[in-house]
Amino acid sequence: MAAAQAVEEMRTRVVLGEFGVRNVHTTDFPGNYSGYDDAWDQDRFEKVGDEEGTEIDTLQFRLQVRCTRNPHAAKDSSDPNELYVNHKVYTRHMTWVPLGNQADLFPEGTIRPVHDDILIAQLRPGQEIDLLMHCVKGIGKDHAKFSPVATASYRLLPDITLLEPVEGEAAVELSRCFSPGVIEVQEIQGKKVARVANPRLDTFSREVFRNEKLKKVVRLARVRDHYICEFQVEVSVESTGVLPPDVLVSEAIKVLMGKCRRFLDELDAVQMD
Fold it and tell me: Is 42 left (phi over 0), alpha (psi -120 to 50) or beta?
């Protein structure tokens, strides 16, 4: 597999869809206390799994929150945070309900949402949420909710070349045409001289070509063969918060290496046949 294809495979398939995390898969609603019509709720949540989870493959959470009025709130207050109790439902309200012997295997506090300050819903007095959530492990290609990645991308390395020396105020002006850190202005024998410091920081805004004087002294390109030469590629991975980006990339590389090994084993098996 060529290096370029390997990066594309890791970005588009492995990182996004081929290693798993736990997420809510099915939800049971014991009652409807929200004031909505029951038929509306049943239609909205009709696809609930038929299979019952076990302590081996399922984590169960209970979310039960009722909004009430605060009897101690000031009469002239209009702040919902003061008027109501439990009007904001957060992930910290989710309570782990052990299945089977899970309570013996996992100490208290180890099974919980990754972040406890995610807002789930806002309620008003008389409204209540009462539901049971079943979390299972899945991968992104089964359903997007299991993907731990928000955005994954890569780009070719920018190639910036100064065709002639740029000195004096022109050097300062040139540095302003690029992202900070791309063009560095140095003092050489009392003169300000521009040099390309870090082309990787460039966003390819092409602002320099709007300057009639400077557009003739700069050449912008991309390193087309960087995959083969130095593997200079910038990979950007944003996490949804379940796993840190560096862990996502390292785990994706492991999955990709495993796929390569299996492919080589299949080639060896074909040659032996």
Answer: alpha
Round to whole Å and give the CA distance between 87 and 216.
Answer: 62
Would the pTM of this model clear 0.85, i.e. be above it?
no
Burial class (CB in 10 A: 0-12, 13-18, 19+), 140: buried
Same domain, 134 and 42: yes
Q: Where are the alpha helices (DSSP H) in the chain?
A: 3-9, 15-17, 38-44, 80-83, 102-105, 169-176, 226-229, 245-272
User: Which of 108, 138, 168 lies at the terminal end of a domain, its last residue?
Assistant: 138
Confidence of residue 87 (pLDDT cuts 50, 70, 90): very high
108 plus 26 within the same structural domain = yes
Among candidate residues 219, 223, 91, the one with its CA nearest the CA of residue 161: 219
**How far, in Å, are 95, 203, 270 from residue 267 at the CA level?**
50, 42, 5
Residue 185 lies in a domain: yes
CA 133/CA 186 separation, integer angstroms: 61
DSSP-assigned letters across all residues of 26-73 = EEE-S---SSS-HHHHHHHT-----SPP-TTT-EEEEEEEE-EE-TTS
Shared domain for 177 and 257, answered yes or no, is: no
Q: Are 137 and 21 within 8 A, CB to CB?
A: yes
Residue whose structure tokens are 């063009």: 183
* Residue given tokens 């696809």 in the structure block: 47
Is the Cα dihedral 42, 45, 49, 52 positive or negative?
negative
Report the number of distinct structural domains present in the chain. Answer: 3
Tens digit of pLDDT for each residue in 165-175? Answer: 989 888 889 88
The DSSP code for 230 is T
Distances (CA, A) of 67 to 74, 85, 228: 18, 6, 61
Query: Where do we find the tokens 């009469």?
Result: 75
